[in-house]
Amino acid sequence: MTRTTIACGRAALATALLAAGLAQAAEFRLPEYDTVTLQNGLTVYLMERHDVPLISVRAVVKTGAVNDGQQAGLSNLTGDALLLGTQAHDKAAIDQAFDYRGARLANGGGAEATNVQANFAKADSAALLPLFAEIVQQPSFNDGELAKLRERKVAGLKQAKESPRTVVQTYYRVMLFGDSRYGIPASGTVDSVSALKQADVQRYYQQYYRPDNTAIIVVGDFQKAEMRRQIESLFGAWQAKGAAPARLDNGKVQADKARVWLVNKPDATETTFLIGGAGIARNDPDYVQLNVVNTVLGGRFTSWLNDELRVNSGLTYGASSQFITLSQSGTFAISSFTAQPKTAAALALAHKTYQRLWDQGIDKATLESAKAYVKGQFPPRYETGEQLAGLLGEMYANDVGREQIDNFTQSVDSLTPERAKVIINKHFPRANLQTVLIGKAEAIREVARQYGEVSELEITADGFKPAAN
């Protein structure tokens, strides 16, 4: 057998494997699940999966930074404080109960939703599911533990500003959404978090943590009828007080003119930057196809942005673009960082590369490559019970129907170069781009002025807004 024959055989095998992988992606559909609403208004999702003896349970509460008002960081603090103990079990007892069984307990909050999640063996469900229900419904908010948590958060806020890449998205969100609800930083500020008290947390919990504002999601090795009885037993007596939280307007991106926020970090040797504007909501009908188009621009290692700014020019170690979605709106940004002397060149090349979307569009071969990549990446994102529970939680929080998931492959396959052009013109911001630069202002001030009206901020100042005039 010749080397040529071997090479051809390997190529044929690779093609067959790729085809098999794409076929598998084409067959992906969201597994069946039941949705139940209890008499107290609690939404329950139950998805059976018997491949491994594990259970993932998640509580998703529709509350986040958008509900903080003048107390930025309150939602984040309240969500984390749920794990500090219940009325019947202190923090040490909870930690021991989960750690002893090798189970996982975690939480997280964002702009509009707060999650509490647990993953444990099926055999431990009888011990840990009731404890999980306690954590959600009967937190103690122990004042001593809460004080220590608050101190850790304040220290984390101070430390975060040492790393521009850690805080650049927060500056960007505040810049784009201004004083609207979406402009409230989820982590808060040093001053706002330092001022939070136990009474604030208790009040916030009573107002937003209620069954008619919450979903309980269970995915794993169980029988749905029996699990439903357990959930009703554990959560059925939970009662809301007062009127349910109203759905409010959380804000829209402000981009009536090109602006630059120049965040001064005097000791910086690099410039970190974001460029962009308004994006889309998570339930937008174009969500799937838009992400395919963005894959070409900056959504993978071989994207235009990474090729130009990293591979071809060596101006940066990486460049990307991303749509960050919310329930009512979203943002789009090109992101990268570069050595300070290369700031002007990197920004110019980022803008030039972005302009290719309109100047040359996306040809069929490039689009087909991106479509294959996206289809190959999709199924592995939802293989485990924990991943599926997270997806159901995201769907609940953002009003996403299962048809978006079930029709994923069809949406990708139907994307043509002509349709991509429509998507680009509709959703990628082109005029009045918004820019955040974090670096040594003295060195990059003149560069910043090329891209819009400049506002200067000091990274050492508390918060994420320019100082009031």
From TrEMBL:
Pfam families: Peptidase_M16 (PF00675), Peptidase_M16_C (PF05193). Residues 53-171 form the Peptidase M16 N-terminal domain. It comes from the Bacteria. One of its GO terms (molecular function) is metal ion binding. Keywords: Signal. Residues 198-372 form the Peptidase M16 C-terminal domain. Residues 1-25 form the signal peptide. This is Insulinase family protein. It comes from Duganella guangzhouensis. The lineage of its organism: Bacteria, Pseudomonadati, Pseudomonadota, Betaproteobacteria, Burkholderiales.
